[in-house]
## 1
Amino acid sequence: MKKTIAIAVLAALVAVPAALADKPASKPAKPVAAEKTWVKVGGGKTLGTVVTLASVGVTATPLKPATTVSGNVRLPITQGKLILSKTGETITGVKGTVGHVGGLKLTNGDKSVAVRNLTLVGNLVAGSPDASKLTAQIAGKRVDLGTATLGAVTVAGGKVTVPLSAVSLSQDAATALNTALGTALVAGTSLGTATLTARVVGKGKA
């Protein structure tokens, strides 16, 4: 049966009129359609620097289970879920949240305040300004800690990596910290960079 089909196809190709010989053998490839997938995370860490606080004389000490590694803050990740927009294998958008435990105790002279339980809120949409941010509990009240600019997100080897190429202090956080510490921080001040690396515990089509 297979030989009969092959001969029939060959005969049909030979019989193509000469006028059609210049037409392309196949249609141009269609653009790769965007798709969405999701990943659920369950553990990992975010390692980052906080540059502004040292410049204004504020000391930072980790609140367990957070630690410091070579001058950087390491915050354990609890859980979260990210919806990833993809074109081919390239991730072009990220939406969702990833939570952390622990935090930092910030001290300025005889004044101190706790910044706990940071949450990354991803809101990166292709073709739009990045609206991602970090939120945190400052003195027990959750506020937007600052805006976050996300770098190239990757998923490989059972891990998702989200670079935060820039973190800028929000007005609400600046007000809360200045009230608690007697500092003069201003909105938009750089807080440094960070890299979130989380273990993937589930994934699928979104």
## 2
Amino acid sequence: MLQKVLANKPLSVLALLCLAGGIATLGYFILLIRAADDSADWPSTTGKLVKCRVAKHRSSSVGGRYGQSSLGETVAYDLDMEYEYEVAGVAHRGRRFNFGPHTGDRDYWSEKAKKYCAGRSAEVYYNPRVPEESVLETEGGEENYIFILMGLGFLGFGLYCAVQLFRERAA
């Protein structure tokens, strides 16, 4: 039976890629959402900002329409930052702003960068079990729910392809 399923290699590969991509996407973003929820209860300490600037991230994709191929580029922003803080007399350095995703809204990140200028002090929220894990803002997890939907979409399409393979080969 497995040999019959593997006979349609393109659909088999597509099904496996979608299933793996869906599972990986769901797992990663569920962990981020949980971390954002947990961070709301973390204790805080005063830290000092060492570096803070708006960072631009580019990603490329290839697409096409009507036989024409094109290279598309997506731009997203976040904060490239570093801050120092101390917990129980031990010095730490953090780089994470929050548990939210990068966004295409440069103005949003520019406003955040103004608020967190290097050299200023800031409230640092740290994981009491792992003090090296920290953020400057505890919100941001809710923006990750769109990626949960994407993961479910990949998973659903992968399952659909797998079912089609088994139906095709069983007949």
## 3
Amino acid sequence: MIEFHAYLDWLSKKTGQKYRFPSEAEWEYVARLGADGVRIFTADSAVAGNAAEVMGDCYMPTHAGAPTDGSAVLTPDCGIRVAKGGSFAGEPPFFRAATRVSVTDPVRGTGFGLRVVREMPVKDR
């Protein structure tokens, strides 16, 4: 993830905004918006099925003990990350929003990509 984090650092510095990888929970929430089943390669399925996307979360075998606030699972030594979304190169069962795979650092391949989140400042009410 060093190269990906270098990109995030560069993008943040270039724009003056803060960028990060989405958490697994954030990604899945967005992927399921309006979902009523599996949608493959349609206009409204841009979150799933194009490329498996690297998450900000360290890989854990289950969601046991995961944060309940939607933040990423972080551990001191995170050499294995979560990827979600399946890819054009995968089988249809992998297109489910709940599908998650472990990827080692650094991940490379035509079936993997990344999506970044720009953090927005919190305004006082």
